[in-house]
Amino acid sequence: MTAYEPITTRAPNAADASHDSGHRFDAARRWAATLDLAFDARQERGAQVTRMTRTRFKGPLRVQRPFYPEGKTGCCHVYLLHPPGGLVSGDALNINVSVGSGAHTLVTTPAAAKLYKADRNGVAWAQHTHLNVANGGILEYLPQETLGFNGSRGEQTTTIDLETGAKCLGWEILALGRPASNLPFVTGHMEQRFTLHMDGKPLWLERQLLDPTHARFQGKWGQGGATVQATLWAVGLEDEAGAIEAIREQLTASAHWAITRRRGVVLLRYLGNERNEAWDVCQRAWEVLRPMLAGQSAVVPRIWLT
Questions:
Q1: What is the pLDDT of residues 243-267, one digit of tens each?
Q2: Exposure of 212 in the CB half-sphere (CA atoms within 13 A)
Q3: What does the alpha-carbon distance between residue 259 and residue 282 come to, in Å, rounded to a whole number?
Q4: What is the C-alpha to C-alpha distance for residues 300 and 67, in angstroms, rounded to an integer?
Q5: Half-sphere exposure of 119 (CA within 13 A, CB side)
Q6: CA-based R_g, the chain, Å
Q7: Strands 167-176 and 228-235
Q8: How do residues 81-133 score in pLDDT, each as one tens digit?
Q9: For a tag site, which of 34, 229, 294, 299 has the least CB within 10 Å?
Q10: For residue 238, what are the CA distances in angstroms to 9, 189, 242, 250, 291?
């Protein structure tokens, strides 16, 4: 049985209550939302089934009911919902996903997320995602792409805590500006950070600043003027070298993507200007890696096809 529990906090005074609800439009505006999910393996009628055992939320973050497109004993698919569809100044999203031993969960989103232009006070948004996987658990974190509008300011962090024996595959795809509307990303400031630990020991730490006015953004030694970037990670592969070779064989060679491994983490990068190309590279890599990681062929979430 899933426990649906709203997260409640008590504001110490009226000013803080206004601040917490987002009813401010000065430099201190803030609207927080939190979603805390847990998945565990349960024995039901002689079979092991992954169940969503905790759903706590505050603010405009929800989750649809779990889906089982791979069968009752297969991977549990869950869609994260953020009804506003994007982040504005002062928004602060905190997403926590925990997967227990023996459970297998795929988390995605129904549409691209949008990072809107900062308000006149330049107030930043924030999105913090924390993924926890226990020994024997499998988590696939596959959100649809994020679109950064010109003038957007904010911080996006992804923290991954794994136990020995845990398996995790995920990606983040970021597209800057709106080229179809001739609105390039020429102002704004974003920070993207990844942190991955195994049993508390750091395996992958990364921090990237995205400032279109900095020389690194246009320099060939940095962003090179590219407006679309993606990072895919995979931990828990038995044959990392074989997985890398399989991806190189299946994907069309291009100067826009590369793959490597370090300290048990396989990393695939994309850097270019085509959002659809970045998505295709990541999805095809996932389709290659998933059987090696989970022993099951990739099953595309139905929401991606709508």
A1: 999 999 999 999 999 999 999 999 9
A2: 16
A3: 11
A4: 12
A5: 16
A6: 20
A7: antiparallel
A8: 999 889 999 999 999 999 999 999 999 999 999 999 999 889 999 999 999 99
A9: 299
A10: 44, 39, 9, 19, 11
